[in-house]
Amino acid sequence: MSAEETHGNGSASTEVAARVERRWATIAAIIIVMMALLAAFAGIHRATMPQPRVETTDPSRLHLSGEFVESNLGSVLEANGNVTVRAIGQQYSFTPACIVVPADTPITLRATSADVVHGILIQGTNVNTMLVPGYISEQLMRFTKTGDYLMPCQEFCSFGHEGMWGKVKVIDKAEFANRAKGGGRLSCVGQ
Amino acid sequence: MLVNRKLILAHFWLAFAVFGIALTLGAWQMFIRSPIGTWLSNPELYYRSLTAHGTVMGYVFPTLVAMGFGYAISEAALQQRLVGVRWAWAGFWLIVIGSIMAVIPIALGRASVLYTFYPPLIGNVFYYLGVVLVVVGSWIWVALMSVNLRIWRKAHPGAPVPLAMFANVAGSYLWAWTAVGAALELLLQIIPVAAGLKNTIDAGLARIFFSWTLHAIVYFWLMPTYIAYYTIVPRAIGGRVYSDTMARISFILFLVVAMPIGMHHTFADPQVGAGFKFIHSAFTALVTLPTFLTVFTICASVEIAARLRGGRGLFGWITALPWDNPMMLALAFSFVMLGFGGAGGLINMSYQLDTSIHNTQWITGHFHLIFGGAIVIMYFAIAYDLWPHLTGRELVDLRLIRTQLWLWFVGMIVTTFPWHWVGILGMPRRMAYFDFGDPAIAPQALSVTLSAIGGFILLASGIMFIVILARGMRAPQADAGANRFALAVHQPATVPVALNTHALWVALMIGLTLTNYGYPILNLALSEGTSVPAVYVGAQ
Fold it and tell me: Which of A23, B63, B125, B463 has its CA 20 to 30 A from that of B247?
């Protein structure tokens, strides 16, 4: 209360203090609005955003029928020249354990989990998605450099988690087209 | 006026005892998975340790600090004996029992599910029941804070609620509501499965429930720290709070916008569409506002102290600050870590950037810097400030206290900066060991080693902290005087109802939670065929 008496509310110092404070609050608000606008712009204009759609699948029937049966896992060259990769994660490996894809090609990764929550992360890229059993994860990717990339599981999936490392092999576009000629699903196996 | 000192001391001692144990486990984990440790023959031990570390540091330690500090604030700020002491002890013992109940299955390797649960992995049911008891114990505290404030209001109609208590009650309400997400996940989903009543569970829905708790819980951990910034630091260094109004607005903003933002933890998840992810991202941007306001107000309050001490010039006043005062030191360290951690947080909440660091070691580095660094260093400061009032004895060795704070700061920087770096390189979280012989992983070896060294510095600092407090229990008796909180430059004579009560803001908090979570939760709960078989830990 003594402060109230010594500095009356109408004093010049109070006004200065309030003005400075308001200015700072305005700057903070502008920063926040800018951040949201940037995210919206990049999301809409550049189509960079998290997975937009929700798709479900039954993990206990993955191996019996549908998109994720074993014979359908791996990379496939689509008619339009794009590549689709289908993979599953299970304790404690990915299938295929080594994914082969061409460089400079739009690739769609479609993956799910057969048991618990896993994650796919391709080191040296920003490819990064959760695999939640019951749901299908989809990521768009494109590699500019050929070579091997490590693909660890990025979510704790029980005692063998530390051993769950896959690989991505990015090969020359022509070489991939050549290998894809016979149809079927490609992985590093047989290379 | 601290009457129930034993109650408050019991909370603090239990908090710091479990903190010491979890810290030791943490340092061991840093060591064993680094190149200087030898590979664990049984990696499962690592996950037991990790589950214990996370459960204690996430649920038990900060909750006990908030409770003990809350009781102290209630008595000291309101100048009123705590009402409901028996209930308070009941809450305390529930936490003791819950912690023991949870830790036994963890130690036996029956609950290595980590503190984030993440079903369909399912551990022993007693682990989850233990966590529930801890939360129920803390809810008693929430109710007591509300009751005590109500009693004070009746005796002081229309008077401004002291800032410390206003913020303390806001923090307790935030906790009560944020814990509901995990409670729903545990009670409706996990516990029935863990008890064997069901054997399927919707993993996607569980992650959404958990995200409800996962983010706002961080702001609950933060509350004691922010209360210390506003109501202890300015008094301890001889200054004044720049603006009481802005302080109240900051705490209200935390209450309202800390909640409806948790889904930024699920950007990489397949069970939510992009729309709600964007909404949560935008709301997360909003939660930076109270921190921006706080940084401004506290820097201004500190400047007032410096100028009162004869500080001059645009920045010259900084040298006039009482740098030998532990509170000043803790605040400065806390702000530096808050700055770096906050900047990292902006990357995590970003709709686009998150994907480059999601679930990497960057994330662990981030929350250790924010929680273990910026927040916990102020828990130390709170304990140092309250100890003489609680024990009636003086903490004499200021040099030791300063060394302890310095070590914590240096240790946290040495631990977390390399941690962030290996995250950018794509090193995943929560792994018992890494094959540093792999040429692709070898470049991370040096950074991981540095982090491990930082872990040992932190352990040394933690031990010093506990030694200082223990010695403080046996120091010569001294009257610490009245336990006062900082005054504002313009101490308010009246406060608008909106800034003096919580009801409106609690309603807004609940309303925003319903708008931001209602649809995604209902949508997942009502969709068929998304329940998956449970995978029981230890059954393989």
Answer: B63
Q: Which of residues 98-137 of A touch B (CB under 8 A)?
A: 112, 115-117, 119, 121-137
- What pLDDT digit, counting tens, does each position of B244-297 carry? 999 999 999 999 999 999 999 999 999 998 889 989 998 999 899 999 999 999
Per the DSSP assignment, residues forming a β-bridge with A129 are A120
DSSP string for residues in B358-385: TTBHHHHHHHIIIIIIIIHHHHHHHHHH
Partner A contacted by B283 (CB < 8 A): no
Inter-residue long-range contacts of B191-198, CB under 8 Å, 24+ positions, other chains counted: B191/B125, B191/B128, B191/B129, B191/B132, B193/B119, B193/B122, B193/B534, B194/B122, B194/B123, B194/B124, B194/B125, B194/B127, B194/B128, B195/B125, B198/B534
Inter-residue contact B317 to B237 (CB < 8 Å): no
Q: Distance from CA of residue B64 to its chain's centroid? A: 11
Q: How confident is the model at residue A13 (pLDDT cuts 50, 70, 90)?
A: confident
Q: How far apart (Å, rounded) are the C-alpha atoms in residues A48 and A44?
A: 7
Phi–psi pair at B200, nearest 5 degrees: -125, 160
Kind of pairing between the strands at B535-536 and B121-122: parallel
**Chain B residue closest to A5 (CA)?**
B490
Cα–Cα distance measured from residue B255 to residue B247, given in angstroms and rounded to the nearest whole number = 13
CATH number of the structural domain spanning residue B47: 1.20.210.10
Residue of B59, B209, B219, B283 marked catalytic: B219
Q: Is A64 on the interface with B (CB under 8 A)?
A: no
Place of tokens 């809350």: B70
Q: Report the alpha-carbon distance of residue B123 to residue A177 in Å, rounded.
A: 47
Nearest to B11 by CA among B53, B60, B51: B60
| Cβ contacts of A142 on chain B, cutoff 8 Å | none
Q: In angstroms, what separates the C-alpha of B489 from chain A's closest C-alpha?
A: 6
Active site residue B215: yes
Q: How does A142-172 read in b/e, with b if 16+ C-beta sit within 10 Å?
A: ebeebeebbbbbbbbbbbebbbbbbbbbbbe
- Asked if A132 and B270 come within 8 Å (Cβ–Cβ), the reply is yes
Give the global pTM: 0.95
d(CA B298, CA A24): 13
Q: How confident is the model at residue A10 (pLDDT cuts 50, 70, 90)?
A: low
Alpha-carbon separation of residue B60 from A187, B29, B133, B399, B528 (angstroms): 47, 19, 11, 30, 36
Mark the ranges of chain B whose per-residue pLDDT is less than 50. 540
* B359 in reach of chain A (CB within 8 A): yes
pLDDT recorded at residue B490: 84
Task: Provide ipTM, 2 decimals.
Answer: 0.91
Nearest to B355 among A1, A3, A126 (CB): A126
Domain residue limits at B68: 5-435+442-536
**Cβ B489–A160 below 8 Å, yes or no?**
no
Mind listing the pLDDT tens digit for each residue in A96-117? 999 999 999 999 999 999 999 9
**Tokens encoding A62:** 């993955």
Tally of domains within chain B: 1
Please indicate whether residue A133 or residue B479 has the higher confidence score (pLDDT).
A133
Looking at chain A, which residue has its C-alpha nearest residue B294? A25
The predicted structure's pLDDT at residue A1 = 35
Q: Is the pLDDT of residue A6 over 70?
A: no
Q: Which of B 224-263 lie inside 8 A of A, CB atoms?
A: 240, 242-243, 246
